Amino acid sequence: MMKCLEVCATIFGLIQGVLVMCNKRSNWIAYVIQMAFLIVFSAFNHLYGDVVNNSIYFVIGIIGFILWKNEDKAIPQFCTVKQRVMYILVILIGTIGIAMILRTTDDPLPLLDAFTTVSSLVATYYMMNKKIDTWFIWFVNDIFYALEYFILPDQAIYLFWLNVVWVFMAVGSFLNWNKIRRNANE
């Protein structure tokens, strides 16, 4: 059952990654389906930060689908300096706080789980609002998620490789969203 959950989450994650890289609203449908699989997968692996994270993502996926209804009208933009300082502080402080909570559970990787939880929530928020900076955050986040899935006691090799692919897709998404921004400003 675990491998089935992992494979399904991986397939929908790849679909979502391609669709979001192309700035398509339908990415949120694959996103919501992937989150459903990841909620169950994370619960079985005692990754409680990820359970909460993926549950929130499930809701954010629905909100993202609604917000992107006018996908051609919303042009991706960079964050302001103030927004960048805020997301760095949120990631740092949130990681420390959640890691302290997760250390009281049987989470096998509390610090890594905390970091990926907080940074991916921040990245998803900015993705939902079409901020190009989301791809910087996703790039770092996907590296650490790959590490998390690789060193899990019950290694999640498909999710590891999905996150390796997503590292490169984050670069492609950054380039594509920046191109869309430049073309809109010409």
Account of the protein in words:
- This protein has one domain (2-184).
- It has seven helices and no strands.
- 78% of the residues lie in helices and 0% in strands.
- It is an all-alpha fold and 186 residues long.
- Helix 2 packs antiparallel against helix 3 (48-67).
List the main descriptive attributes of the protein structure presented here.
single chain; 186 residues; mainly alpha; 7 helices; 78% helix
Write a brief caption for the model.
The protein is an all-alpha fold and 186 residues long. Helices cover 78% and strands 0% of the residues. Helix 3 packs parallel to helix 5 and helix 5 packs antiparallel against helix 6 (134-151).
Helix amount: over 70%
Q: What's the oligomerization state?
A: single chain
Number of helices: 7
Gross geometry: globular
Order of helices and strands: HHHHHHH
Mean pLDDT: 92
Alpha-carbon Rg, integer: 16 Å
Number of strands: 0
Number of domains: 1
Percent range for β-strand residues: under 5%
Q: What's the N-to-C terminus distance?
A: 51 Å
> What summary fits the major beta sheet?
none
What is the element layout, followed by pairings?
Layout: H1 2-21, H2 27-44, H3 48-67, H4 81-102, H5 110-128, H6 134-151, H7 157-184
Helix pairs in contact: 1-2, 1-7, 2-3, 3-5, 4-5, 5-6, 6-7
